Amino acid sequence: MKFFIDTANLKEIQEAQDLGVLDGVTTNPSLMAKEGISGKNNVLKHYKAICEIVDGDVSAEVIATDFEGMIREGEELAELDDKIVVKIPMIKDGVKALRYFSEKGIKTNCTLIFSAGQALLAAKAGASYVSPFIGRLDDISFDGIELIEQIRTIYDNYGFDTEILAASVRHPIHIIKCAEIGADVMTGPLSAITALLKHPLTDIGLEKFLSDHAKTNA
Ligand code: G3P
Protein backbone atom coordinates (compact mmCIF):
# COMPACT_ATOMS: atom_id res chain seq x y z
CA MET A 1 0.00 0.00 0.00
CA LYS A 2 1.30 3.42 -0.96
CA PHE A 3 1.57 6.09 1.75
CA PHE A 4 0.56 9.62 0.80
CA ILE A 5 0.61 12.51 3.24
CA ASP A 6 -2.51 14.65 3.35
CA THR A 7 -1.20 18.15 3.94
CA ALA A 8 0.12 21.27 2.24
CA ASN A 9 2.63 21.86 5.04
CA LEU A 10 6.12 21.73 3.52
CA LYS A 11 7.83 20.91 6.82
CA GLU A 12 5.60 17.89 7.41
CA ILE A 13 5.98 16.74 3.81
CA GLN A 14 9.77 16.97 4.18
CA GLU A 15 9.63 15.05 7.49
CA ALA A 16 7.60 12.22 5.91
CA GLN A 17 9.91 12.19 2.91
CA ASP A 18 12.96 11.98 5.21
CA LEU A 19 11.38 8.99 6.99
CA GLY A 20 11.73 7.19 3.66
CA VAL A 21 8.17 5.88 3.42
CA LEU A 22 6.45 8.59 1.42
CA ASP A 23 4.92 7.79 -1.97
CA GLY A 24 3.05 11.02 -2.63
CA VAL A 25 1.03 13.97 -1.37
CA THR A 26 -2.63 14.96 -1.42
CA THR A 27 -3.86 18.48 -0.87
CA ASN A 28 -7.21 20.23 -1.04
CA PRO A 29 -8.35 23.86 -0.87
CA SER A 30 -8.90 23.63 2.91
CA LEU A 31 -5.37 22.32 3.48
CA MET A 32 -3.93 25.09 1.27
CA ALA A 33 -5.94 27.70 3.20
CA LYS A 34 -4.65 26.23 6.48
CA GLU A 35 -1.11 27.06 5.33
CA GLY A 36 -2.21 30.59 4.38
CA ILE A 37 -1.60 29.98 0.67
CA SER A 38 -3.83 32.20 -1.47
CA GLY A 39 -3.83 33.77 -4.92
CA LYS A 40 -3.28 31.76 -8.11
CA ASN A 41 0.47 32.41 -8.42
CA ASN A 42 1.19 31.52 -4.81
CA VAL A 43 -0.90 28.36 -5.11
CA LEU A 44 0.97 27.25 -8.25
CA LYS A 45 4.31 28.10 -6.63
CA HIS A 46 3.37 26.05 -3.58
CA TYR A 47 2.53 23.01 -5.71
CA LYS A 48 5.92 23.38 -7.39
CA ALA A 49 7.61 23.45 -3.99
CA ILE A 50 5.78 20.27 -2.94
CA CYS A 51 6.81 18.54 -6.18
CA GLU A 52 10.45 19.39 -5.45
CA ILE A 53 10.30 17.57 -2.10
CA VAL A 54 8.56 14.33 -3.06
CA ASP A 55 9.24 11.62 -5.63
CA GLY A 56 5.64 10.50 -6.20
CA ASP A 57 2.25 11.84 -7.23
CA VAL A 58 1.00 15.19 -5.93
CA SER A 59 -2.76 15.79 -6.05
CA ALA A 60 -3.73 19.39 -6.83
CA GLU A 61 -7.42 20.24 -6.73
CA VAL A 62 -9.35 22.39 -9.17
CA ILE A 63 -11.62 25.11 -7.78
CA ALA A 64 -13.93 25.42 -10.77
CA THR A 65 -17.10 23.33 -10.76
CA ASP A 66 -18.01 23.67 -14.44
CA PHE A 67 -16.50 21.46 -17.16
CA GLU A 68 -14.63 24.21 -19.06
CA GLY A 69 -13.25 25.72 -15.85
CA MET A 70 -12.06 22.34 -14.57
CA ILE A 71 -10.35 21.60 -17.87
CA ARG A 72 -8.66 25.02 -17.93
CA GLU A 73 -7.43 24.77 -14.33
CA GLY A 74 -6.52 21.09 -14.60
CA GLU A 75 -4.40 21.61 -17.71
CA GLU A 76 -2.58 24.48 -16.07
CA LEU A 77 -1.91 22.38 -12.97
CA ALA A 78 -0.75 19.39 -15.02
CA GLU A 79 1.74 21.57 -16.87
CA LEU A 80 3.48 22.46 -13.62
CA ASP A 81 5.14 19.09 -13.14
CA ASP A 82 4.81 15.46 -14.26
CA LYS A 83 4.01 14.53 -10.65
CA ILE A 84 0.79 16.56 -10.62
CA VAL A 85 -2.46 14.59 -10.46
CA VAL A 86 -5.52 16.74 -11.16
CA LYS A 87 -8.03 16.41 -8.35
CA ILE A 88 -11.63 16.64 -9.51
CA PRO A 89 -14.78 16.63 -7.35
CA MET A 90 -17.43 13.92 -7.83
CA ILE A 91 -20.02 16.04 -9.59
CA LYS A 92 -21.58 15.68 -13.05
CA ASP A 93 -19.13 17.99 -14.85
CA GLY A 94 -16.36 16.37 -12.83
CA VAL A 95 -17.19 12.97 -14.32
CA LYS A 96 -16.97 14.50 -17.81
CA ALA A 97 -13.65 16.11 -16.87
CA LEU A 98 -12.31 12.73 -15.66
CA ARG A 99 -13.06 11.25 -19.08
CA TYR A 100 -11.45 14.24 -20.84
CA PHE A 101 -8.22 14.04 -18.81
CA SER A 102 -8.09 10.26 -19.05
CA GLU A 103 -8.17 10.50 -22.85
CA LYS A 104 -5.39 13.10 -22.74
CA GLY A 105 -3.21 10.88 -20.54
CA ILE A 106 -3.38 13.28 -17.57
CA LYS A 107 -3.70 11.57 -14.18
CA THR A 108 -6.75 12.35 -12.04
CA ASN A 109 -7.94 11.85 -8.50
CA CYS A 110 -11.71 11.92 -8.05
CA THR A 111 -12.37 13.41 -4.63
CA LEU A 112 -15.32 13.58 -2.23
CA ILE A 113 -16.32 9.96 -2.79
CA PHE A 114 -18.83 8.74 -0.21
CA SER A 115 -20.53 5.81 -1.95
CA ALA A 116 -19.68 2.73 -4.00
CA GLY A 117 -21.83 4.07 -6.84
CA GLN A 118 -19.73 7.22 -7.04
CA ALA A 119 -16.55 5.13 -7.05
CA LEU A 120 -17.92 2.93 -9.85
CA LEU A 121 -18.82 5.97 -11.95
CA ALA A 122 -15.40 7.55 -11.45
CA ALA A 123 -13.67 4.32 -12.49
CA LYS A 124 -15.83 4.06 -15.60
CA ALA A 125 -14.87 7.65 -16.46
CA GLY A 126 -11.21 6.64 -16.30
CA ALA A 127 -10.10 8.18 -12.98
CA SER A 128 -6.55 7.23 -11.98
CA TYR A 129 -7.49 7.41 -8.28
CA VAL A 130 -10.71 7.63 -6.28
CA SER A 131 -10.69 9.19 -2.84
CA PRO A 132 -13.32 7.76 -0.48
CA PHE A 133 -13.32 9.90 2.70
CA ILE A 134 -13.44 7.28 5.45
CA GLY A 135 -13.03 9.57 8.48
CA ARG A 136 -15.89 11.81 7.42
CA LEU A 137 -18.15 8.77 6.99
CA ASP A 138 -17.19 7.53 10.45
CA ASP A 139 -18.04 11.04 11.75
CA ILE A 140 -21.67 10.55 10.72
CA SER A 141 -21.92 6.93 11.94
CA PHE A 142 -21.37 5.25 8.56
CA ASP A 143 -18.55 2.73 8.38
CA GLY A 144 -15.85 4.25 6.17
CA ILE A 145 -13.82 1.05 6.12
CA GLU A 146 -16.85 -0.87 4.84
CA LEU A 147 -16.94 1.47 1.84
CA ILE A 148 -13.30 0.65 1.04
CA GLU A 149 -14.21 -3.07 1.12
CA GLN A 150 -17.16 -2.51 -1.23
CA ILE A 151 -15.09 -0.55 -3.73
CA ARG A 152 -12.28 -3.15 -3.60
CA THR A 153 -14.79 -5.90 -4.46
CA ILE A 154 -16.33 -3.93 -7.33
CA TYR A 155 -12.99 -2.92 -8.85
CA ASP A 156 -11.67 -6.48 -8.57
CA ASN A 157 -14.83 -7.92 -10.13
CA TYR A 158 -14.22 -5.98 -13.31
CA GLY A 159 -10.47 -5.38 -13.28
CA PHE A 160 -10.69 -1.58 -13.07
CA ASP A 161 -7.23 0.05 -13.01
CA THR A 162 -8.45 2.96 -10.87
CA GLU A 163 -6.54 2.99 -7.59
CA ILE A 164 -8.41 3.19 -4.30
CA LEU A 165 -6.91 6.07 -2.35
CA ALA A 166 -8.38 5.89 1.14
CA ALA A 167 -8.66 9.51 2.27
CA SER A 168 -9.71 11.35 5.41
CA VAL A 169 -7.63 8.79 7.30
CA ARG A 170 -7.36 9.97 10.88
CA HIS A 171 -5.46 7.34 12.89
CA PRO A 172 -3.26 4.24 12.63
CA ILE A 173 -6.15 1.75 12.85
CA HIS A 174 -7.60 3.28 9.68
CA ILE A 175 -4.25 2.65 7.98
CA ILE A 176 -4.04 -0.96 9.16
CA LYS A 177 -7.64 -1.74 8.15
CA CYS A 178 -7.05 -0.20 4.72
CA ALA A 179 -3.96 -2.36 4.29
CA GLU A 180 -5.89 -5.50 5.32
CA ILE A 181 -8.59 -4.78 2.75
CA GLY A 182 -6.11 -3.97 0.02
CA ALA A 183 -6.60 -0.25 -0.55
CA ASP A 184 -3.96 0.80 -3.08
CA VAL A 185 -3.08 4.01 -1.25
CA MET A 186 -3.89 5.70 2.01
CA THR A 187 -3.52 9.41 2.62
CA GLY A 188 -3.39 10.76 6.15
CA PRO A 189 -1.72 13.25 8.44
CA LEU A 190 1.89 12.81 9.56
CA SER A 191 0.60 11.99 13.06
CA ALA A 192 -1.25 8.88 11.77
CA ILE A 193 1.87 7.69 9.92
CA THR A 194 4.25 8.19 12.84
CA ALA A 195 1.73 6.60 15.24
CA LEU A 196 2.43 3.32 13.43
CA LEU A 197 5.92 3.41 14.95
CA LYS A 198 4.73 3.24 18.49
CA HIS A 199 4.42 0.27 20.82
CA PRO A 200 5.04 0.48 24.59
CA LEU A 201 6.81 -2.92 24.57
CA THR A 202 9.26 -1.58 21.98
CA ASP A 203 10.17 1.31 24.30
CA ILE A 204 10.39 -0.95 27.38
CA GLY A 205 12.41 -3.54 25.45
CA LEU A 206 14.87 -0.98 24.11
CA GLU A 207 15.36 0.56 27.54
CA LYS A 208 16.18 -2.92 28.93
CA PHE A 209 18.59 -3.74 26.09
CA LEU A 210 20.43 -0.46 26.64
CA SER A 211 20.58 -0.78 30.43
CA ASP A 212 21.85 -4.41 30.21
CA HIS A 213 24.46 -3.27 27.68
CA ALA A 214 25.50 -0.39 29.96
CA LYS A 215 25.93 -2.79 32.95
CA THR A 216 28.51 -4.91 31.14
CA ASN A 217 30.18 -2.09 29.24
CA ALA A 218 30.63 0.43 32.05
O1 G3P B 1 -7.95 13.59 1.96
C1 G3P B 1 -9.15 14.18 2.35
C2 G3P B 1 -8.94 14.91 3.59
O2 G3P B 1 -8.17 16.05 3.43
C3 G3P B 1 -10.14 15.14 4.40
O3 G3P B 1 -9.73 14.85 5.66
O4 G3P B 1 -9.80 14.88 8.07
O5 G3P B 1 -10.73 16.81 6.73
O6 G3P B 1 -11.92 14.63 6.78
P1 G3P B 1 -10.60 15.32 6.88
From TrEMBL:
Active-site positions on this chain: 87
EC number(s) reported in the record: 2.2.1.2
Main subcellular localisation: cytoplasm
Entry's localization field: Cytoplasm
UniProt entry tagged with the keyword Cell membrane: no
Tagged with keyword Metal-binding: no
Coiled-coil stretches: none
Broad enzyme group: transferase
Pfam family, one: TAL_FSA
Keyword list, A-Z: Cytoplasm, Pentose shunt, Schiff base, Transferase
Catalytic reactions of this protein: D-sedoheptulose 7-phosphate + D-glyceraldehyde 3-phosphate = D-erythrose 4-phosphate + beta-D-fructose 6-phosphate
Pathway: Carbohydrate degradation; pentose phosphate pathway; D-glyceraldehyde 3-phosphate and beta-D-fructose 6-phosphate from D-ribose 5-phosphate and D-xylulose 5-phosphate (non-oxidative stage): step 2/3
Stated role: Transaldolase is important for the balance of metabolites in the pentose-phosphate pathway.
Protein family per UniProt: Belongs to the transaldolase family. Type 3B subfamily.
Protein name (database record): Probable transaldolase
Organismal lineage: Bacteria, Pseudomonadati, Bacteroidota, Cytophagia, Cytophagales
